[in-house]
Design brief:
By secondary structure, the chain is of the alpha/beta class. The chain is built from 16 helices and 13 strands.
Length: about 700
């Protein structure tokens, strides 16, 4: 599910759908060759008719003069004309005949010259047509190759890019969302971290088991998760067990005073009281010993029962009862001890049944809905405070090497949230705090420091308004629906049959047929020799006559008997494979970051706002972890892909539409290259190789927190 090229320390909050290469559309049309230029037969016939009409008087005059010259010569020989007249007439009419013939010959030569000129023009025009056609075909080939490159880039490009946070991000504040949305986002965040060798701790205070999908996927990543469901697993839960007395006093004081810190409660008396009791109990005291000491100090029940059960010794009981004197202060001590015991008794079974467990990079502490509101509140405060104390003792490491996800952090007081966030920032531990609602103490802390803000569906109008103001209502998104369907089915069918047939058949048939045909035809046609059908006064006529007559008679008689027997076994087997692949993209709606739009976001849609460089980015993404299984997914960020492919990014304006997700989204605001710009090539298209995966190095060691397998 996760390739090895995912870099450790990168935090992904979902997927954004983006097209780096626009759809090239249909391929360019092939140029259609024009009709070849040729001598117009009509023009040629018209020229000949015109020349014939023009030269007809000259031809007739030449013929007439030639006849007259011949007649004069004949008359002269016959003696009818004297020689002088004969010579004069013959010369005169002969000269006129020659002049007419010359005129007719010149007209014929002019016609031949015109036809030759037209032929040369047609030949030159045809050469220009062929040259233009060859140039158009070469241009089409060049455009088609460019279209093929754009088409391959479009078809082979990645469509889903992870929304990777910058390295300087210390915390993610998630507001809103449903249980299904939180489960999707937690899985999208946790699976890459675990696959890259980092550690993840989940505090599920939502009572909705949002880490269930992540725990089920941990086995595929070869990670054995450690899961505790409190308060049922308190005996095997040893967080904070065995700490020194001073550290335990700090943890218990913060735990019992957390929900009253906002009301001006002074935790100093509680700390003093608990510190004195822990001094008596010594280092490594358990919670049940502390609550037994508080009962003895508050005079609740019989302290000898705790002595018999081994929670207190007789010496410790005597010292505890003598810690405070009698008088006015005695009543105050009793009331405070009673209140502390009422809160801490929920933790009595903490670490009472320890067992060694192997280390794990995934630890989940979840609150059981059956634990009660009061008990779960105390458990949530204790786990948060104890984890904060352990983080303060750790040394700073690589950012996000260890990540803590707190689901339902709105139930924690603001002071505990600040302590946990400060400890995570000091040790470079990643923190993802998810809030179902935005109470005043949460609204004051959203986006503090180097924090990224993530917003999911918000049902409450006031919360949606606060989130809209936090992000900025000027951002515009396009929400679409993208459906990818991939299916395969295999069918196998086998059948056997046995056949035995015995039959007898007898048939008699008589057939008689008679046919007669007669035909007679006569045709007349005209043929034009020389392949010149338009030449006038040329050709020959032909007449054809044919006649045929025939008669046919056929008689047949069949008589027979057929007997047959057959046995057989037939076996058939068919195997069929059917595969289907389909994609549907449907534009849903375009919206601004307004309260009513945040109230109807899809369950897995998340709007991520983070600072990177000189400006703040706002991205609409999809936290559906199933997107990681698609073939069009890449684990490099969108900025890295644009840098590698040389694609021009969209203008960074405040109202610029951002590629949607949500219900997996269709692209919007696609980057377009300027006119005349060269076509950008996809990654590794020319070389056939992509970028090599980074060197992950050895997996980091998990934090020193001993846990037990659920």
């Amino acid at each position: 599910m996760i390739p090895a090229a995912f870099q450790p320390g990168q935090v992904s909050l979902g997927w954004q759908h983006e097209l780096l290469y626009a759809d090239p559309g249909l391929p360019p049309r092939r140029p259609v060759p024009p009709d070849p230029e040729r001598v117009n037969p009509g023009w040629l016939a018209a020229q000949r008719r015109e020349e014939n009409l023009i030269s007809r008087p000259a031809r007739q005059a030449a013929a007439g003069c030639a006849l007259l010259a011949g007649a004069v010569i004949l008359f002269g020989r016959a003696g009818w004309l004297n020689p002088a007249l004969t010579a004069l007439g013959a010369a005169t009419f002969g000269g006129l005949a020659v002049a007419g013939a010359v005129s007719a010959w010149r007209g014929r030569q002019a016609l031949k010259a015109a036809i030759a000129a037209e032929t040369r023009r047609v030949t030159a025009a045809r050469a220009v047509q062929e040259r233009d056609l060859f140039a158009a075909q070469e241009e089409h080939a060049r455009r088609f190759r460019a279209w093929q490159g754009r088409h391959r880039a479009f078809r082979g490009q990645a469509l889903w890019y992870p929304v990777v946070l910058p390295e300087q991000t210390d915390r993610v504040d998630l507001v809103g969302g449903t249980m299904a949305g939180w489960s999707a986002l937690l899985t999208s965040v946790g699976v890459p971290l675990l696959a890259s060798g980092d550690a993840l701790t989940v505090l599920d205070l939502s009572e909705g088991a949002v880490a269930r999908d992540l725990v089920s996927l941990a086995g595929q990543l070869r990670v054995g998760p450690l899961v505790w469901v409190l308060p049922g697993d308190l005996p095997r839960f040893d967080l904070g067990v065995g700490l020194p007395a001073a550290a335990m006093a700090d943890i218990l004081t913060a735990c019992v005073s957390a929900d009253r810190a906002a009301g001006g409660h002074d935790p100093a008396p509680d700390h003093s009281l608990l510190a004195r009791l822990l001094d008596v109990l010594g280092d490594g005291a358990r919670i049940c010993q502390v609550t037994a000491a508080l009962r003895a100090l508050a005079q609740v029940g019989d302290p000898r029962d705790d002595v018999r059960q081994g929670r207190l010794s007789a010496v410790q009981l005597e010292r505890i009862t003598g810690l405070f004197g009698r008088g006015a202060a005695d009543r105050v001590v009793i009331e405070r001890a009673w209140a502390l015991e009422a809160r801490l008794r929920v933790l009595d079974r903490l670490g009472s049944d320890p067992a060694p467990v192997p280390p794990s990079r995934l630890r989940v502490v979840a609150a059981d809905p059956g634990g009660g509101a009061f008990g779960n509140g105390v458990l949530a405060a204790y786990v948060t405070v104890a984890l904060t104390h352990l983080l303060r003792q750790a040394r700073p490491g690589r950012p996000w090497r260890h990540t803590i996800c707190v689901a339902g952090a709105q139930a924690l007081p603001g002071e505990l949230i600040d302590r946990l966030a400060g400890a995570c920032e000091a040790t470079r531990t990643g923190l993802v705090a998810a809030y179902r609602s935005i109470p005043p103490h949460v609204a004051q802390r959203l986006g503090r420091g180097n924090a990224a803000l993530a917003v999911m569906r918000l049902g409450n109008a006031e919360d949606a308004k606060a989130a809209s103001e936090q992000i900025g209502a000027q951002h515009r998104f396009v929400l679409s629906q993208l459906t990818d369907t991939v299916g395969a089915s295999v069918s196998d069918t086998a059948g056997d049959s046995y056949t035995s047939t015995v039959g007898t058949a007898q048939s008699v048939s008589v057939a008689r047929s008679r046919s007669q045909s007669s035909g007679r035809g006569r045709g007349r046609g005209r043929a034009h020799p020389g392949g010149a059908p338009l030449a006038p006064r040329s050709g020959s006529d032909s007449t054809e006559t044919s006649e045929s007559r025939g008669t046919s008679d056929t008689d047949s008689l069949t008589d027979g008997i057929n007997t047959s027997t057959s046995w057989g076994v037939t076996t058939s087997r068919a195997i069929g494979l059917n595969e289907s692949l389909g994609r549907t993209v449907q534009r849903s709606r375009e919206f601004l970051v307004e309260p009513e739009e945040l109230q109807r976001l899809p369950p897995s849609a998340v709007i991520v706002s983070y600072a990177s460089g000189p400006r703040r980015h706002v991205v609409l993404a999809d936290a559906n972890p199933a997107i990681a299984t698609l073939s069009t997914v890449t684990w490099r960020s969108l900025d890295e892909a644009r840098l590698a492919t040389g694609t021009v990014p969209p203008a960074a304006t405040a109202g610029q539409p951002v590629t949607p997700a949500g219900q997996p989204a269709a692209p919007a605001g696609q980057p377009a290259a300027p006119p005349g710009a060269p076509v950008a090539q996809p990654v590794g298209w020319r070389s056939g190789r992509g970028q090599p995966p980074p060197n992950l190095g050895p997996p980091p060691e998990p934090p020193d927190w001993r846990k037990r397998r659920h």
